[in-house]
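Hi support team,

I'm filing this because I wasn't sure whether my run with N-carbamoyl-L-aspartate finished correctly. The job status page said complete, but I'd like someone to confirm that the output block is well-formed before I use it downstream. Pasting the exact inputs I used:
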Amino acid sequence: MDLTGQHILSSDQFDLETLDALYDTADLLVSVAKGRQLIRILEGAVLASLFFEPSTRTRLSFDAAFMRLGGAVSHTTGVVFSSIMKGASIADTARVISGYADVMVIRHEDENAIVESAQASLVPVINGGNGAGEHPTQALLDLYTIRSEFQCLGREINGSRVALVGDLKYGRTIHSLIKLLSLHQNLTIVCVSPPHLTCPQVYLDLAAKAGHRIEICADLCTGIAGCDLLYATRIQAERAGEDVLNLAGSGDFRITKAKLNAYCLPHCVVMHPLPRDSRLGAQDLAEDTKADPRLAIFRQSDSGVPVRMALFAHVLGIAKKIAPSLKNSVWSSK
Ligand code: NCD
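And here is everything the job wrote out:
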């Protein structure tokens, strides 16, 4: 599928062929993301970055991606300093800002805001996270990471056992990732969460319809045993409200070094979209796992820049012009 001029709202817009093309472009751009090569192919272009919910890595990696392609970024963060505080609708906001920019990234707590923005916008809109709905660009970089980790291990994604752990109800990265994983074959997807934070049925149905086996498990150690990929997530306290208060008594979901060693295979790939909750006793991927070579979390976050660069290149229709436009850098920090 040609992504030129498309809004990127959900990961169900992608098929394997489109992903292959996108990831080929991302491979080409890794050296640019690291500063070893330079490209100014988006010189003069403006990205409007509208993050109405907290963000660090997503926002900064979109910025870095656009700037390393030669473009400039114009921001607004939070609702406090935006005209939304004066009653402006998201549709009006998106239409106005689309007159100032060539592409827009929006993160908003309201799941419907992204579609309303896309309908009103004159330029492509990219979903940077819509409430508890989706986070398609995170899923794109997650699958890119999974491909590269599995390739290094000489393993196939098809046929593997994937444990999705944590807040599967409000965790939007999981929702988008299930859609991309479902494009593969013969997976066993184990949803490991407290019973009240289990994955919404719509995503499970989608995976089951694509022929994958779904297991629901409320016990962490049973759920992660023997998995090829462990994808951990943070409890979304800001969304879960009372559901989080109910967490006491629903089991221990802290993934520690001891549990990884006891239950996970030597080739298991451990991922997390970050941020992880590093506070003492948090039900998340524990800090004591940091020396484990199976932990791919920083290779995963590093993939954010080349994958988002590739997405901009495809949405703005310049992907084919990249290879001839690369120049070697006279400096490099990495
Ligand atoms: C995620 C998000 O915002 O959904 N963060 C991110 O973009 N990498 C995950 C989270 O906040 O838990």
